[in-house]
Amino acid sequence: MTIAATDGAARTGELTTARGMIRTPAFMPVGTAGTVKAMYPEQVRALGADVILGNTYHLMLRPGAERVAALGGLHVFANWPHPILTDSGGFQVMSLAGLRKLDEDGVTFQSHLDGSTHRLTPERSLEIQALLDADIRMQLDECVRLPASRQEVERAMRLSLRWAERSKAAFGETRERALFGIVQGGDQPDLRIESAEGLAAIGFDGYAIGGLAVGEPQDVMLAMLDTTVPALPADKPRYLMGVGQPDDIVEAVARGVDMFDCVLPTRAGRHGVAYTRFGKLNMKNARHAEDPRPLDEAMDWAPSRDYSRAYLHHLVKSGELLAGMLLTWNNLAYYQHLMAGIRAAIAEGRYAAFVAGTKAGWARGDLPPL
């Protein structure tokens, strides 16, 4: 990773992969099953995304990693010739807890699709990610939902460290691709530091911070970043997994985080919510029904500029597919606009002022009703 500028702990730079450069700080749209929902790949790219995320667990189940490999790999399959990061399946260890059995060797899943049984180990996870030909691959880990007992958090952290060693061995010496370790430790500062130092000793191409935004309040998440980030190698990228509220992003960047992903902008768009400079707008609300104004005419993307609030409200209330398409487009555009602003502000040494101005816009709220 090349760091071009810093402003306090915040930093901007570039992460180079075989399929292209990733500008940091970066937000990665989530393409769980090989698609960013409700978006064309070329749209996602045009908005400024350098990298998208794919999901090992879901692609393992459908259509199958071996099938994707036979069809040319995930980049060809999904018509995305740019960098792809794949998560390891570790999050599903938590989110699908009712359908899995965990042991020292790995995880046995019952498919949420058809009930069939599947086995995921650190080695199998890396094998799947290799079949997908992901540019950035993640170790298999266990993520614990908070709040949790210290005993449970410590057990999962130590298991994740052991799996990190196995993941590194399974990855081998491939230099054209990257492998990231994942820091665990819940809301326990000493366990976070132990995990970070243990991963640094193993040696990875980048370091993710996992197990946050899983039920804890923001101040706890930020405290864990304050603890964890200084323990990570300064010359490697830092990736805060699954974090996507705009306020969380700007605060995490201020603490030295380089990469983010979240389903929030796409999921919110499919449920009638727009992200704007004025904060979140619920287009289901009746206040929009007769409003001819756009979401934000100052923004240079079509869903924000060219469609009336009344029309968007109508689409959402009518259950039209176009509602999710336009609002997802708007939300991803806003997120990439936010990231571009973050990068420019860091480069110009005015990040604190940028954050203050951005938060003031959110606090001011939406335009008053007509």
In short:
With 370 residues, the protein is α/β, with parallel strands linked by helices.
Secondary structure: elements and pairs:
Layout: E1 2-7, E2 10-17, E3 20-24, E4 26-29, H1 41-46, E5 52-55, H2 56-61, H3 65-70, H4 74-77, E6 84-87, H5 90-95, E7 100-102, E8 107-110, E9 117-120, H6 122-132, E10 136-138, H7 150-171, E11 178-183, H8 189-202, E12 206-209, H9 218-228, E13 238-240, H10 246-254, E14 259-262, H11 264-270, E15 273-276, E16 279-282, H12 302-305, H13 309-318, H14 321-347, H15 351-364
Parallel strand pairs: 4-14, 5-6, 6-10, 10-11, 11-12, 12-13, 13-14
Antiparallel strand pairs: 1-2, 2-3, 7-8, 8-9, 15-16
Count of alpha/pi helices: 15
Distance separating the two termini: 49 Å
What radius of gyration results from the CA coordinates?
20 Å
The structural class is alpha/beta
Count of beta strands: 16
**Strand portion:** 15-25%
Mean pLDDT: 96
Largest sheet: spatial strand order: 4-14-13-12-11-10-6-5
* Global outline: globular
Q: What percent of residues adopt helix (DSSP H or I)?
A: 40-55%
Biggest sheet details: 8 strands, parallel
Low-confidence stretches: none
